[in-house]
Design a protein that fits this description.
Layout: H1 5-12, H2 16-23, H3 31-44, H4 50-57, E1 62-68, H5 77-93, E2 96-102, H6 107-117, E3 122-126, H7 133-140, E4 145-148, E5 160-163, H8 165-178, E6 184-188, H9 194-209, E7 219-221, H10 226-237, E8 245-248, H11 251-263, E9 273-277, E10 294-297, H12 300-316, E11 324-327, E12 330-332
Parallel strand pairs: 1-2, 1-3, 3-4, 4-5, 5-11, 6-7, 6-8, 8-9, 9-10
Antiparallel strand pairs: 10-12
């Protein structure tokens, strides 16, 4: 049988106030005490009374995410890995994740409702676009937030966690150029997505520093599905002067590119080189591809954990000013790349 706050406090020989503050992230409680209380709460099955906690602390004990849905909205497997990281932090710090579904046309109203009803204490935003209206709205509301990624228009005015997309694709392109490749295709994300802009910028800058013209005809932008990767690769391979290498903005896209190579009786690493972004999916491991795939590695689950950790810091007062974090990425070389064919 689950224990209540009084029983948990008695078991730990602490006051109910100290236990409550430890569970709710107050900064005056030491990390050691917070860890002891959290471990005991999980072990004994403590389940807080949400209504009582809201009355006592003024907090809902939950962070929120507005998930757009509808017949024209593509599901994103990257997000589920990210959400697992958020969940790992939530479990150990005794708060909930509130998913608020919304039609794309109702997204602004959904954020305003969450702020007005105090169903959540903070929210996180994912997949930002160039000029992201969500960031503008949240800046107006009394609701702490953090962005996973960046928008182009206001980097210094909101909290975010991002990876060095530009640097990752610059390094990948540099490696291909060193291997003699001059016709490098980039099968990228949607036109409006900031991360895709940064990755393209990295590829273009690597061409420029090598004194090689980047060929726009070898660029594709679209929703990152396997079918999109396949169609893009077939179109490029069947054109005049086809690419000798592919840069793919996700492992899912790379699946389609590899399928296209197989249809054209080409082998990755021997006939044509392939590099993909993402190296951390437990259900899609690059080393298990027929030809192990060279990847730009970024820790998606770790980013989810860090987003939740920073929201908790905002709510406790430990993080007062909006800070941007840009994480480095790692290029993991496997067998899917080789010298350009002569």
């Amino acid at each position: 049988m689950a224990v209540n706050l009084k029983a948990l406090a008695t078991h730990l020989n602490l006051s109910q106030t100290t236990v409550s503050r430890a569970l709710n992230g107050y900064p005056e409680v030491s990390e050691r005490t917070r860890a002891i209380v959290s471990e005991a709460a999980n072990r004994l099955g403590y389940s807080p009374n949400q209504a009582a906690r809201r009355l006592a602390t003024g907090k809902a004990g939950a962070i929120g995410y507005v998930m757009t849905t509808g017949p024209d909205v593509q599901s994103d497997p990257h997000f589920m890995e990210f959400l697992s990281g958020v969940g790992e932090f939530a479990i150990t710090h005794n708060f909930d994740i509130h998913i608020a579904p919304s039609l794309p046309t109702r997204e602004e109203a959904t954020y305003r409702r969450l702020a007005a009803t105090r169903q959540v204490d903070a929210v996180f935003v994912s997949a930002p676009v160039r000029r992201d209206r969500r960031i503008e709205i949240l800046g107006e509301l009394d609701l702490p937030f953090i962005v996973h990624g960046r928008s182009e228009d206001a980097d210094d005015t909101y909290a975010f966690i991002d990876i060095d997309n530009e640097g990752g694709f610059r390094d990948a392109t540099r490696l291909l150029i060193k291997l003699g490749h001059r016709r490098i295709a980039i099968v990228n994300g949607e036109e409006r997505m900031t991360f895709a802009d940064h990755r393209e910028r990295g590829a273009v800058s690597a061409h420029a520093e090598a004194g090689i013209a980047f060929e726009p005809r070898l660029k594709r932008r679209g929703a990152m599905t396997e079918a999109y990767g396949y169609r893009s690769a077939i179109d490029l391979l069947d054109g005049s002067e086809p690419p000798t290498a592919f840069l793919c903005s996700s492992m899912i896209v790379a699946l389609g590119v590899i399928r296209a190579l197989t249809d054209r009786r080409l082998e990755a690493g021997r006939d044509i080189s392939v590099i993909a972004h993402d190296d951390v999916f437990p259900y899609l491991k690059p080393e298990n591809f027929r030809t192990p795939l060279t990847c730009v590695r970024s820790p998606i689950r770790k980013a989810g954990f860090r987003v939740a950790e920073r929201l908790a810091a905002m709510l406790s007062g430990a993080e007062a000013e909006p800070v941007g974090e840009i994480w480095p990425v790692e290029l993991v070389v496997r067998d899917s790349i080789g010298p350009a064919p002569r």
